[in-house]
Amino acid sequence: MQHTLRALALGLTAIVLAAASAPAAQPVPSFAVLLTRGNASAGHRSYTGAAIVKALRARGFIADALDDPSGDPAILGPATCASAGVSVLLDSTVAIDIQPDREINQWATAKVDLAGYNCITGRPLEATSGSAASYNWNWAVDQAVAAAIKHVPHA
Hints:
By secondary structure, the protein is of the alpha/beta class. The protein has a single domain (26-149), classed as Rossmann fold (3-Layer(aba) Sandwich). It has helices spanning 2-21, 42-58, 73-84, 137-149; strands at 30-33, 62-65, 88-101, 105-118, 123-134. Helix 2 (42-58) packs across helix 4 (137-149). The longest helix has 20 residues, at 2-21. The model is unreliable at 7-20 (pLDDT under 50).
């Protein structure tokens, strides 16, 4: 019985030591998406912001849209980071060009530019862009967002 207890105690000690030496899991980055700017209509800008949030969530990140003013994340960053409690701010600009097409009714081209601010380091992130074209403006925006997000650090 004493040998069994000693073996059990040694086994538990080994498990505790193994758990203590395992690297800590990195926290999941959280993103705040500022209101989208650009020459697109208000509905298209709103859709683009929602598409960015959806794409980030699909990649396993925590993301939400903020109704805060849009603008340069490097200027807005410190105050917005403090109030939102996130690790990354994303500012976006969208341009959508929809042209009539005889065969498929319309052809849309979307370009999404992202600028970011790392709330942890207090530094701007490198700007990224994505563009896509489709017979459907929603799909063009979704694909442009996906292309731009691929190059955002932590995404």
